[in-house]
């Protein structure tokens, strides 16, 4: 019996190539584009995000060229609650979230897998640069890095569960981006050379504070800048304007560079200090998901990433009382609450969690 796959098509070249590769491998495929939000709801022009009508049109054009049916699934209510609202709530708590991780977790690999079951299909397919392998000796599905290290997206996929890994496919994981563009051009895809979005889809101009004001209806509340000793040294424009490690745009005349070292939402304070004050060798993370290992009851040597573009760093990781602790061999700069820490052994993802704090 031919296996069936739903291709999550964003309108970009990667998901289009994923559809082509699955068809070439003999799967019965349909395309599906997620309607995540209405641009007007986020206060941005209709054409300025990855959810634009042009993107849906591009996805439909590729699906038609490949002889596939194409659907548009309206997931906007869940996206608003699980991604946009979580983004706003996190900033209000002085945290810096990664909404791409939340979108993958709650939309692409939760709702899409549910829809897959409802349609009696076998797999959800995306254009992520990552790989899934089954280790029969461990009886576990493994998430691995994509072959193209410059494009590897395993970091934003660490929340995948064993059941989800069983039903997802990443056909681009063994390819390089240049090969994918060549493949798309060869087959005449309208998006073969489409520019990639580097921004958060619902904040395409990068002005997070302005989005939060539009989304929540609340203006940012000014408060105090303090030094690491608690002395007031100036006034800030609202904690939503700042993140750990920030140097530019502080408006503080200290005679030397100062950096955001902490955010205290309950006091509406932003703590600034010297560059050395940004470094810590240990972090704590919560909301942990493990993939390659069933538990981390004893310390394990790992390589850890604390941001998407952060180079992996050698460390020791373990869990206590449901929390993940990571102690680095060398202190790391700007460990940021709200971001994800993801653990690796070689090219295999051990798991990860949401950073709640850093310390020495």
Count of discrete structural domains: 3
- Give the biggest sheet: 6 strands, antiparallel, barrel
Helical segment count: 8
The proportion of strand residues reads 25-35%
Count all strands and give the number. Answer: 17
Assigned CATH class of the largest domain: Alpha Beta
The percent range for helix content is: 25-40%
Distance between the termini: 57 Å
- Helix/strand structural class: alpha/beta
Radius of gyration: 22 Å
Q: Output the helix-strand order.
A: EHEHHEHHEEEHEHHEEEEEEEEEE
CATH topology descriptor of the largest domain: Rossmann fold
Shape: globular
- Please name the CATH architecture of the largest domain: 3-Layer(aba) Sandwich
- Low-confidence runs (pLDDT<50, min 5 residues)? none
The chain-level mean pLDDT equals 93
What is the name of the CATH superfamily of the largest domain?
A: HUPs
Oligomer: single chain
Strand order of the largest sheet: 12-15-14-13-16-17
């Amino acid at each position: 019996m031919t296996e069936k796959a739903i291709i999550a098509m964003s309108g970009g070249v990667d998901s289009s190539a994923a559809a082509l590769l699955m068809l070439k491998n003999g799967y019965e495929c349909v395309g599906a584009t997620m309607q995540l939000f209405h641009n007007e709801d986020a206060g941005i022009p209709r054409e300025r995000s990855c959810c634009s009508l042009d993107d849906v049109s591009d996805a439909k054009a590729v699906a038609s060229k490949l002889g596939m049916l194409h659907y548009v699934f309206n997931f906007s209510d869940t996206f608003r609650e699980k991604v946009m609202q979580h983004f706003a709530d996190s900033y209000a708590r002085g945290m810096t979230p990664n909404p791409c991780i939340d979108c993958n977790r709650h939309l692409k690999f939760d709702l899409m897998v549910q829809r897959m079951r409802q349609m009696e299909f076998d797999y959800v397919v995306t254009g992520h640069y990552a790989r899934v392998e089954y280790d029969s000796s461990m009886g576990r599905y493994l998430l691995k890095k994509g072959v193209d290290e410059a494009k590897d997206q395993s970091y934003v996929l660490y929340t995948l569960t064993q059941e989800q890994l069983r039903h997802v496919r990443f056909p681009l994981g063994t390819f390089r981006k240049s090969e994918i563009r060549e493949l798309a051009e060869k087959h005449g895809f309208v998006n073969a050379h489409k520019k990639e979005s580097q921004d958060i889809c619902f904040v395409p101009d990068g002005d997070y504070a302005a989005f939060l004001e539009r989304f929540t209806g609340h203006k940012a509340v000014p408060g105090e800048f303090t030094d690491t000793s608690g002395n007031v040294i100036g006034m800030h424009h609202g904690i939503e304007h700042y993140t750990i490690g920030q140097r530019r745009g502080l408006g503080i005349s200290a005679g030397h560079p100062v950096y955001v070292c902490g955010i205290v939402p309950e006091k509406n304070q932003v703590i600034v200090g010297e560059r050395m004050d940004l470094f810590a060798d240990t972090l704590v993370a919560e909301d942990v998901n493990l993939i390659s290992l069933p538990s981390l009851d004893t310390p394990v040597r790992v390589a850890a990433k604390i941001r998407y573009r952060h180079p992996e760093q050698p460390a020791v990781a373990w869990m206590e009382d449901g929390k993940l602790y990571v102690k680095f061999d060398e202190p790391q700069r700007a460990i940021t609450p709200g971001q994800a820490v993801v653990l690796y052994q070689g090219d295999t993802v051990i798991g990860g969690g949401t950073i709640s704090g850093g310390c020495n």
